[in-house]
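Reply to thread "Modeling small-molecule complexes from scratch"

Following up on the discussion above, here's a worked example others can learn from. I took a protein sequence and the SMILES for magnesium ion and predicted the complex. Inputs first:
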Amino acid sequence: MAVRDITLGQYFPGDSCIHRLDPRVKIVCALVYLVSLFVVRSFWVFGLCILFLAAVIILSGVPFRFISKGLKPVIFLIIITMLINVLFIRTGDPVLTIGKFYITNEGIYRALFMGLRLVLLIFGSSMLTLTTKPIELTDGMEKLLSPLSKIGLPAHELAMMMTIALRFIPTLLDETDKIMKAQTARGADFENGNLKEKAKALIPLLVPLFVSAFRIAGDLAMAMEARCYHGGKGRTRLHQMKLGRVDAVAAIVMVVYLGCVIASRYININIF
Amino acid sequence: MAEDAIISFKNVSFSYLQEEDGSAPVEKLALDDVSFDIQRGSFVAIVGSNGSGKSTLAKHMNALLLPTSGSVIVEGIDTITASDEAPWELRKKIGMVFQNPDNQLVSSIVEDDVAFGPENIGMPPEEIRKRVDESLKMVDMYEHRRKGPHLLSGGQKQRVAIAGVIAMDPDCVVFDEPTAMLDPRGRREIMAIIRKLHDQGDTVILITHFMEEAAEADRIIVMDQGKIAADAAPAEIFSKEDLGVLNVPFAVKLSAALRKAGFDIPAGTVTEEKLAEFLCR
Ligand SMILES: Nc1ncnc2c1ncn2[C@@H]1O[C@H](COP(=O)(O)OP(=O)(O)OP(=O)(O)O)[C@@H](O)[C@H]1O
Ligand SMILES: [Mg+2]
């Protein structure tokens, strides 16, 4: 059945230096990159951001069409954001006037600027999820957040929840499929009708799905307890995360990059 | 308690609290004054009809449930004391495999899942690596170690679940209907692993509805309405008519028929292998 084919996350298998980076380093680098996009004030610095991302993409060996797939669900949002900028920014010189209505050069400039920033944000975060296995991401996140567990943040529990969610997405999809078939056999119709009817048709799907999710959760909790689970205390891990040479290089490159972006705010190059 | 008993039940009773809608919860007696010892290194099958208390009994062996009255002694320690302090110390000695393989795997990668138990008991990483590889090889799933469980068959998933338990190096493994959801081939594979575990010297407790599987044990305990209805060697259990014991295995029926026809089949020939071995001699 089709639901089985859904890939988890969007990991693109590979063995590049980007893939091999320690997940902790990769998460931090991605965050730094995303933040850097908000530090940028002029178009020419975006050139630097694009160059940097292009280098990462080439190194990772992930085909560009996989990366651009990430844009699809948000392209609408990006267009709206750009339109709002064009239509509502009133400062600057009018470049197009239709009756009382006008568009300014500043508006177009801001729209392009915002659009580019959003696209880079998506590409930047996609690069993290494309080159890191979901399970490595949760492990990395747990390690990064673990200092915060001293002030009460349940880092281990959050990571465990994500691990289990990843594990059970295919199971629950299968379950959904099974229930849908069973209810269709009983005369339920999930395909036809208007929005309200469709929403109503979901009830005989959701109720059994919740019941079975709770049953699975109960079974799993019992099995985990039987396998000695007792929280994160005293727990060791099979995969030890070790920082290597690539990680050091990545850290240095990132610091230099961030330095350049920040410095650009104080240097005036008047191209635009 | 016998010298070398690994698990010992002493007058154990257990009631579930059943919540009825609206009214006060009622007690449902699931185990009724049960006493028995399990010898170290033995292979014991537990059979009985649905709701006779087999799973409830099993869950007492690793302190998932604690007796309402009486006591369960595992490796010389009362489970009530053990669960007060560190139940995982007991659970790493008494592993448990459940019926539904899907609902007992935790991680989306096979080897990470097998590592889950050893990680919980704080095993050093190199040791975990060694145990994970050994266990996966033992259940013949080593080449699938990097796959996701959703890509495996039911039998393969159950083998991974077994690997996850034996990776903790338990002294005893309790199987609660491990083959109930599998096809005949999956069942054979699981039984082969159970036999292998027993041959290695582990204590094995197998709850099952399949009499062919129970016949392979050294001893069968028959449960009925929370009580032990019979507790004897397979040959003896299958010879008792009054127990209404479910389906007598084919090999037992055949031996009986052959005996009637004048063949000298030894008592205790309850599995097809043993019968074949005898007939081919
Ligand atoms: N969580 C529970 N709450 C209330 N009653 C329960 C619960 N679990 C089991 N029971 C009841 O306890 C009795 C024994 O159940 P148990 O699951 O031990 O039977 P079983 O022999 O394992 O049956 P099966 O062959 O179906 O697995 C049954 O009557 C059952 O209804
Ligand atoms: Mg049961």
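What I'd highlight from this example: DSSP finds eleven helices and ten strands in chain B. Chain B touches chain A through 41 residues (CB under 8 Å). Questions welcome below.
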